[in-house]
Design brief:
The protein is of the alpha/beta class and about 325 residues long. It has ten helices and 15 strands. Strands 3, 4, 5, 6, 7, 14 and 15 form a seven-stranded mixed β-sheet that branches. A six-stranded parallel β-sheet has the order 10-9-8-11-12-13, sandwiched between helices. Helix 6 links the parallel strand 11 and strand 12. Helix 2 crosses helix 3 and helix 5 packs parallel to helix 6. The protein binds NADP nicotinamide-adenine-dinucleotide phosphate. NADP nicotinamide-adenine-dinucleotide phosphate (NAP) binds next to helix 1, helix 2, helix 3 and helix 10.
Length: about 325
């Protein structure tokens, strides 16, 4: 028996229950991993609330780093003692030990601390596909990143800035401004105090931005469209404030805009894409080109408090949950 968080019904953070679970032995194609660190991601909130569906009961969590404790029959390429990460389309990470499909795991370079790896993999791979594949950021572009001091936002700003773009970031509080500047934002807008559309208009002298990376959704979507240049790209990749209202095609026709609602799972749809993307993120961490702010750690058993703080916009950078057995 090990401890894990279990969810029996959708709802607030209180539905996250800390319980004993049976782990068992890995079957063909699987490995068993004792977790050292578990990444907290906003998607965990969507699943808990039932915005994204899964079968109940379930163990939440899409991102964890740990040590392999058993390898399924006939599986090659993995051994007990390997340090591996799982990040993506798989639930069960909020556990001391769990069984995962080996095809979804990647090796973690020994130079990267497991806590750092668990804080950066999903968020860094998201930043990678957003700036390198979904819309290719180039020198001379002006980009708008909402929630710039958040987990993904922090890495997205660093990456876009390193590609030569002028980065405009939005944050909710004065306290989050310094990190956004440190992460390469040339302009920071406190969107709870100023109208970000007016501020972007001023910053760009009325010409608008090439691309908006909008993970906030409902509260920012319409304003984001207004910030775009003609033929600009609206990338709506999350909904931390709620699902945006439906968009009539006429809203895009006004400036010949592009609109996409991308998902990491479709940009890392094959094993090759996953490994390439993960390795690129790890290489950037190793070289110091990506700096990860692990600003908050909680015991895994306190996941409910971590969820409450993430939803209350009290966090910045990455949040990591640590099992007692790590
Ligand atoms: N499409 C994909 O494949 C993909 C992959 C990974 C993540 N995502 C999305 O990226 C976003 C960021 O994820 P993350 O895990 O790094 O979280 P995060 O950015 O660390 O946390 C969410 C942030 O959103 C901002 N926010 C604005 N309005 C909010 C509201 N009403 N309630 C809560 N937060 C609000 C807050 O920043 P301020 O306080 O500065 O406003 C908050 O800190 C999420 O929307 C997530 O779904 C998408």
């Amino acid at each position: 028996m090990v401890k894990a968080i279990r969810v029996y019904e959708n709802g607030g953070p209180e539905v996250l229950k800390w319980e004993d679970v049976e782990v068992g032995e890995p079957k063909e194609g699987e490995i068993r991993v004792r977790n050292k660190a578990v990444g907290l991601n906003f998607i965990d909130v969507y699943y808990r609330k039932g915005i994204y569906k899964t079968t109940l009961p379930y163990t939440p969590g899409h991102e964890a780093v740990g040590v392999v404790t058993a390898v399924g029959p006939r599986l090659t390429g993995w051994k007990v003692g390997d340090i591996v990460a799982i990040a993506g389309n798989w639930l069960s990470c909020y556990s001391e030990e769990h069984i995962i499909p080996a095809s979804s795991a990647v090796y973690v370079p020994p130079s990267i601390d497991p806590i750092v790896a668990a804080s950066v993999l999903i968020k860094g791979m998201t930043a990678q596909f957003l700036v390198r594949r979904c819309f290719k950021v180039e020198p001379g572009h002006t980009v708008l990143v909402h929630a710039a001091a958040g987990g993904v936002g922090s890495l997205l700003c660093q990456w876009a800035s390193s590609l030569g773009a002028t980065v405009i970031g939005t944050v909710s509080t004065e306290k989050k401004v310094a990190q956004a500047v440190e992460d390469g934002c040339h302009h920071v807008i406190i969107y709870t105090q100023e109208d970000f559309v007016t501020s972007v208009d001023k910053i760009t002298s009325g010409s608008g931005v090439n691309v908006v990376y909008d993970s906030v959704g409902k509260d920012t979507f319409q304003g984001s469209l207004a910030c775009l240049k003609p033929r600009g790209y609206m990338i709506s990749f999350g909904q931390s404030s709620g699902t945006p209202d439906p968009v009539p095609l006429s809203a895009l026709a006004a400036k010949s805009l592009f609109l996409t609602r991308p998902s990491l799972r479709w940009y890392n749809a094959t094993r090759d894409e996953l490994v390439e993307c993960a390795n690129e993120v790890f290489a950037k961490v190793e070289s110091g080109a990506l700096r990860v702010h692990v600003n908050h750690t909680y015991p895994l058993s306190h996941a409910a408090q971590a969820h409450a703080d993430l939803e209350a916009r009290k966090t910045s950078g990455s949040v990591v949950l640590i099992p007692d057995t790590a």
